Amino acid sequence: MAAGVEQRYAVRGLDRYDNERDDDLTDRVDLSIDPVDPSTAGAGSCTTSGCTATKTGDYRVTATVVGTKISGRASLHVVPGPLDHLALDPGEATVGVDARRPYRAEGADAYGNSLGDYTTRTDFSIKEPDGSCSQDGCGATKAGDYTVIGRAIGTDVTGTATGCWTWTSAAWSSPPGASTPT
């Protein structure tokens, strides 16, 4: 089940010989959810008909017949939901003018569960003029602050990073009209 999506449950009773009874107990049980891994504690919740969790991992769902000690368990495996946002790495960088800086993109669902490396599935661009991106990274031909944008291919999901392109000491004498700082 994807993170944040409710898994609905139907509860039926069994007799002491494991023969299924005809009655549906779904509306007469309390559902609860507990993570197998304690680090995801508090990431799950239940309604009267189903349970959901926002963190990936394995969970135990328990249905207890109201007013009794009769209960049953089910397992729930939660996987990441659909791509919701990208995190670009580095988030901030200083780069020399005319130098290229490679960027990585990491995908995540709405709850921050990692979808892994999205770099090869991301188009990178620079918002401002004088900047561009290609397979080998992003760069700018003039000094200044630039916004690097990553857009997951085929979606509207984006991530941003900032880059400051500056003249490096070796570059001070090469730009036309530039003077060496003192």
How do you describe this structure in short?
This protein has 182 residues and is an all-beta fold.
Characteristic terms for this protein:
182 residues, mainly beta, 4-stranded mixed β-sheet, 3-stranded antiparallel β-sheet, 0% helix, 50% strand, disordered C terminus
Judging by the overall fold, what is the CATH architecture of the largest domain?
A: Sandwich
- The third-level CATH topology of the largest domain is Immunoglobulin-like
The CATH superfamily of the largest domain is identified as Immunoglobulins
Number of strands: 17
What does this structure look like?
By secondary structure, this protein is mainly β. The protein folds into 2 domains: 72 residues, no CATH class; 87 residues, Immunoglobulins (Immunoglobulin-like). Helices cover 0% and strands 50% of the residues. It has no helices and 17 strands. The strands form 6 sheets. It has a 4-stranded mixed beta sheet, with no helix packed on it. Strands 1-6-5 form a 3-stranded antiparallel beta sheet, with no helix packed on it. A hairpin with a 2-residue loop joins strand 14 and strand 15. It is rod-shaped, with a radius of gyration of 27 Å. The N and C termini lie far apart (63 Å).
